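Progress note, sequence design subtask.
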């Protein structure tokens, strides 16, 4: 399709000066436009005289010769000056001839500021003009208040402007309740007329929806569209932009349209009929026209822009689904506007129109002006949960990686894609391996689920940078694997991701995946059977001129299922009882009795009858295709049928509408064939003889084995099982089951590596059904236990592990038995059953601790033993070292990071703080070197915790690093821990403003409760008390679940009540709480509470001295810096309470201040400084006391700690002025 030319046709925008070359003997010659000097290919300036050889039109951007005075595309006069390169539009590099739904790119437009400087340039253009008018608005609004009418008009104007601009139109003016819009200004495009008609049809629906919303059900619009030559003021906006006969004619055409109709002239129809269907609206005498004008009624959009993907043959109109389609559009536009993810699940039984709804949405998006990235994939029924199949397929389509691409080819395509969409080389380096894993490329390595999900979301984010939204359509969602639904839940929780997921599924998905359905960003739409009236409209539109008795008979038998009606008409076409006539289907014999010829009692029998009517060669092809699944590669089917016969047969089956072919080049199944409805495949498959089924399944399995792709393993296993079940008595059934079990086992490993834990377990359980050998069962059961660690199904994993232990003992496989014990023990630690876990693995420890032939088993035994002993207060460095050795021997670097971390914690527990710090720093660096981001985040978080009592600066930096990675990977739990540690360290360091900023930023994006209550509430309450702000008591933590948290909150609430002036004696409660905390936390944390001024003030001197007497006496060099500071401060107060102010007290406080500053705890250092000032005043050193108070005052003022400032002033008020 080509646009009607308005001036002399210019070159395509990307051809530049080359479009103006002369041609001699087939060779291109370029000469300077000023001095005729010969120029090299592509020169933009003359080498001899410097004259520009090409410049860009300032309005439409077309490339022009350097001597051009007017633009050849839009007629705009050029201005002198050097040529400038054409700016990038950000459009996806998809040729117009194959442009599809996924890539609708905005045209360059010129701002009013630019054109106004030219004073407005007149030009003549052939453009479509749309005129629309509300019907019945005056009468409908008579009974309404004037303000209501004004608000309604405002809504109407906004709806019109939004719809028209989405389709690339410019609103010229509103005239009362009429609207006029134009396309092709400032730049004409060949699809302008089609976009105008699309906008007109959308306006009709939008106004109807507006009427329903404002309770004016009769509100409607009529639209007229005319394409012709007009005078255009280039660069103008609004009224006066265009003038000419088409404007008046469009208004007249609108006037003869019925409410809810779009009428167009012949030119508009000719330019848009590739994508839009029309019916004749007759010939009309229009005011101002000498001759009657033939008009056409736009019926429906039936293809993408330019007619791409138009389906030939019978296609039913969309009936009874207007509200559902409107919901799809509304949620899509909500995604665009909010830049946030949304999921719409369309749930319906087969044949009710799920796929049709997606097709209508596809055509709608393709007609929009904005750029939208489109991805689509299907969840195969075969494969029983092929991990992330739909997502991988969608990405392959986005990469334009089609059937037949080798791994090397796909790797290059992926590299090109990442280079195009991800500017940062560092980001590309991180993203490539996880994306390669999704695509099944070899050598992609192993990654945690969180890293995989974060990387895949990052790809979607990269796609959305220059687009309004990313659309992901997933068909057959009832077959979705656990990993895919988990990924969707993950993606829905990502902020600033304009992702719209349209998930088409049968209703069983809603009960199978309740977490996804219940997500706050999920909306579910149910499709129900059509009403009799709607079915009547559908049937009548399928076949014109049906007698009422025939139509009623079809409606009755269809029972509200659109597919039944469509298949009935197809059967009539097959029997040549319905034929095409001038673009419509009509009955050959109007006296036909439907009950006699084509009305089986069920959809199943109707489809079966159509299949039975096929010639033998076509029937064989469709039968074998049914074995392959809903969609299939033609090459695989060719291997079953025979290369010479496959293409003609497929073409004929497409013509008869048993099959359809994907023509969307951005779909992962581009070039594949599929059944229009899976029920057709199911019927064909059910009619296959058992031995034919077996033969076909074996042939497919052989083809899949030749492909050697891990993504195909679930399908391979399913076909082998189906072959074995087809004829159970065959001699090779056991062999087929064994092969299937191996395929399920390999598929489980593949799913586990991709983070699809539920599918990994499901594949193993299928394998267990086929395997009787005890040794094989032990290995499979161990895989379930390993997968359960990640999936959270710990009870299931423990049960499988115990079974594996017993089987290993029976078969005498001590390594397998020990591995099962280690894996099971680790799951017990996840359930906090530490004593039980230690008891289980201890049976194997002495026998395996020095072995070098069982590294995997030894790793899990050591990890379980180390963790269970550590949680009970005895981190064993020797066990941790064995764990690290085994980890390195396995070659799994994630295990190595864990081994380094455990050893660091064990060193710390033994007082080897520098060694622990060095080891944990090394763990983080090792993870960073090998791009193990989740492991790096954990190591940084652990480092922040380990050094928090020795070096607050390092603790803050480590926690910051962990927070950054957690945010990048969207690690909700990890970010809660990291932010908790960071906020505590920032409080202690006196960086309260940064603490508030961190909590505000993170808490705004995280679910309530993710960041620990201690970080949010405890330290927030301390700051509030310091600033003298009103503070309510904190909610108590359950003492049984978290005794330390309960004690922390109890002490904090006591201080809040004291500050509030409560008269009750709190000393007993505070003393008892401190006694209970003694064995629950680190010694330095406990002493930190003891020296806290707010806690000391609540205790009687004798109570405080009793507690202080319990502080351990250990050599100073063995103590963390914070503990040394706390102990010096504690000793000072002990001395002050027993002997009064003294030089000993001064020395101890000075030592405490020095240690606090070394630690980085500036809050405690200045609080201690205030205490030292009191002692110095008592000793008569008022000058030094005043200097100290001045320093403390400046610090408190920075913190805005008004309550502390008041206390400081009270203490200093009684002190004499320094002499």
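Output:
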């Amino acid at each position: 399709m080509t646009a009607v030319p308005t001036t002399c046709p210019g070159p395509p925008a990307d051809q530049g000066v080359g479009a103006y070359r002369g041609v001699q003997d087939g060779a291109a010659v370029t000469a300077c436009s000023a001095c005729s000097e010969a120029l090299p290919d592509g020169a933009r300036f003359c080498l001899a005289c410097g004259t520009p050889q090409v410049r860009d039109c300032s309005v439409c951007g077309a490339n022009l010769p350097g001597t051009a005075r007017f633009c050849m595309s839009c007629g705009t006069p050029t201005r002198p000056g050097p040529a400038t390169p054409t700016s990038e539009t950000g459009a996806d590099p998809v040729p117009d001839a194959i442009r599809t739904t996924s890539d609708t790119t905005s045209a360059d437009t010129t701002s009013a500021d630019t054109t106004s400087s030219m004073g407005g340039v007149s030009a003549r253009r052939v453009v479509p003009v749309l005129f629309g008018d509300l019907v019945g608005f005056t009468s409908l609004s008579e009974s309404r208040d004037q303000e209501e009418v004004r608000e309604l008009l405002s809504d109407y104007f906004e709806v019109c402007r939004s719809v028209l601009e989405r389709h690339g139109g410019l609103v010229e003016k509103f005239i009362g309740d009429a609207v006029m819009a134009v396309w092709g200004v400032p730049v004409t495009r060949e699809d302008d007329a089609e976009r105008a008609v699309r906008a007109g049809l959308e306006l009709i629906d939008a106004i109807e929806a507006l009427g329903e919303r404002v309770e004016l059900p009769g509100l409607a619009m009529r639209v007229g569209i005319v394409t012709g030559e007009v005078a255009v003021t280039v660069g103008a906006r609004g009224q006066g932009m265009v003038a000419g006969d088409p404007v008046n004619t469009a208004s007249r055409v609108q006037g003869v349209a019925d409410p809810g109709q779009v009428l167009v002239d012949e030119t508009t129809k000719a330019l848009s009929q590739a994508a839009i269907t029309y019916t004749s609206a007759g010939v009309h005498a229009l005011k101002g026209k000498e001759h009657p004008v033939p008009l056409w009624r736009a019926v429906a959009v039936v293809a993408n822009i330019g007619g791409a993907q138009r389906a030939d043959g019978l296609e039913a109109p969309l009936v009874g689904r207007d509200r559902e389609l409107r919901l799809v559009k509304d949620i899509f536009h909500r995604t665009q506007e909010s830049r946030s993810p949304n999921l719409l699940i369309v749930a319906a039984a087969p044949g009710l129109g799920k796929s049709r709804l997606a097709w209508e949405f596809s055509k709608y998006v393709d007609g929009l002006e904005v750029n939208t990235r489109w991805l689509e994939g299907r969840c195969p029924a075969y494969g029983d949960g092929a991990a992330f199949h739909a997502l991988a397929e969608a990405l392959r389509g986005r990469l334009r990686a089609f059937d037949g691409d080798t791994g090397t080819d796909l790797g290059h395509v992926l590299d090109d894609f990442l280079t195009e969409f991800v500017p940062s080389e560092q980001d590309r380096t991180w993203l490539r391996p996880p994306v390669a894993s999704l695509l099944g490329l070899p050598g992609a390595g192993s990654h945690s689920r969180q890293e995989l999900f974060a990387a895949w979301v990052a790809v979607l984010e990269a796609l959305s940078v220059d687009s309004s939204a990313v659309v992901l359509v997933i068909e057959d969602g009832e077959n979705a694997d656990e990993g895919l639904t988990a990924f969707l839940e993950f993606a829905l929780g990502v902020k600033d991701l304009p992702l719209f997921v349209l998930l088409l599924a049968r209703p069983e998905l809603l009960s199978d995946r309740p977490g996804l359905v219940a997500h706050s960003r999920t909306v579910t739409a149910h499709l129900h059977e059509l009403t009799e009236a709607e079915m009547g409209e559908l049937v009548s539109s399928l076949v014109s001129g049906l007698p009422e008795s025939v139509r009623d008979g079809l409606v009755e038998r269809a029972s509200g299922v659109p597919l039944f009606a469509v298949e009935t008409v197809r059967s009539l076409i097959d029997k040549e009882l319905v034929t095409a006539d001038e673009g419509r289907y009509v009955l050959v014999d109007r006296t036909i009795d439907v009950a006699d010829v084509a009305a089986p009692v069920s959809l199943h029998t109707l489809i079966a009858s159509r299949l039975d009517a096929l010639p033998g060669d076509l029937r064989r092809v469709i039968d074998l295709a049914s074995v392959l699944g809903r969609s299939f590669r033609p090459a695989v089917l060719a291997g079953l049928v025979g290369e010479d016969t496959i293409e003609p047969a497929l073409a004929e089956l497409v013509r008869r509408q048993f099959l359809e072919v994907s023509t969307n080049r951005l779909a992962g199944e581009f070039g594949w064939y599929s059944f229009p409805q899976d029920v057709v495949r199911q019927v064909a498959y059910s009619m296959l003889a058992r031995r034919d089924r077996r033969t076909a399944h074996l042939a497919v399995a052989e083809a899949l084995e030749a492909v050697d792709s891990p993504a195909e393993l679930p399908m391979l296993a399913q076909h082998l099982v189906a072959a074995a079940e087809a004829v159970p008595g065959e001699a090779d059934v056991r062999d087929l089951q064994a092969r299937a079990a191996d395929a399920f086992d390999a598929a489980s490993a593949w799913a586990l590596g991709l983070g699809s834990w539920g599918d990994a377990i499901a594949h193993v359980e299928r394998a267990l059904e086929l395997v009787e050998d005890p040794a094989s069962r032990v290995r499979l059961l161990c895989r379930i236990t390993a997968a359960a660690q990640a999936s959270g199904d710990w009870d299931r994993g423990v049960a499988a592990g115990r079974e594996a232990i017993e089987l290993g003992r029976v078969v005498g496989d001590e390594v397998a038995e020990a591995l099962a014990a280690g894996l099971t023990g680790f799951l017990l630690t996840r359930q906090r059953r530490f004593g039980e876990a230690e008891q289980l693995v201890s049976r194997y420890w002495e026998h395996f601790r020095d072995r070098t032939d069982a590294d995997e088993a030894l790793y899990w035994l050591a990890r379980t033993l180390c963790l269970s002993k550590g949680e009970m207060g005895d981190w064993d460095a020797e066990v941790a070292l064995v764990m690290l050795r085994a980890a390195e021997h396995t070659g799994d670097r994630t295990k190595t990071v864990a081994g380094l971390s455990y050893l660091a914690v064990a060193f710390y527990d033994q007082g080897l703080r520098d060694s622990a710090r060095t080891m944990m720093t090394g763990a983080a660096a090792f993870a960073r070197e090998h791009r193990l981001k989740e492991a790096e985040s954990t190591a940084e978080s652990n480092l922040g915790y380990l050094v928090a009592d020795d070096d607050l600066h390092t603790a803050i930096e480590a926690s910051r690093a962990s927070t950054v990675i957690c945010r990048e990977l969207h690690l909700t739990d990890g970010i809660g821990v990291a932010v908790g540690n960071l906020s505590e360290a920032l409080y202690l360091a006196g960086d309260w403003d940064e603490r508030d900023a961190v909590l505000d930023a993170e808490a705004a994006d995280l679910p309530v409760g993710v960041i620990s209550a201690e970080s949010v509430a405890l330290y927030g309450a301390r700051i509030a008390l310091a600033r003298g702000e009103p503070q309510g008591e904190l909610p108590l933590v359950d003492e049984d679940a978290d005794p330390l948290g309960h004690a922390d909150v109890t002490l904090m609430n006591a201080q809040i009540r004291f500050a509030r002036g409560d008269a009750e004696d709190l000393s007993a409660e505070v003393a008892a709480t401190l006694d209970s905390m003694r064995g629950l936390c680190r010694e330095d944390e406990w002493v930190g509470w003891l020296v806290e001024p707010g806690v000391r003030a609540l205790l009687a001197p004798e109570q405080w001295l009793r507690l202080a007497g319990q502080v351990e006496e250990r050599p100073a060099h063995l103590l963390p810096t914070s503990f040394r500071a706390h102990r010096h401060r504690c000793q000072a107060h002990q001395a002050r309470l027993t002997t009064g102010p003294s030089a000993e007290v001064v020395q101890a406080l000075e030592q405490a201040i020095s240690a606090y500053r070394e630690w980085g705890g500036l809050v405690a250092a200045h609080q201690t400084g205030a205490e030292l000032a009191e002692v110095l005043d008592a000793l008569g050193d008022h000058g030094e006391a005043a200097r100290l108070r001045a320093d403390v005052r400046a610090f408190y003022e920075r913190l805005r700690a008004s309550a502390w400032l008041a206390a400081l002033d009270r203490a200093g008020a009684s002190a004499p002025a320094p002499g």
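The chain has a mean pLDDT of 82. Work on this subtask will continue into the next period as scheduled.
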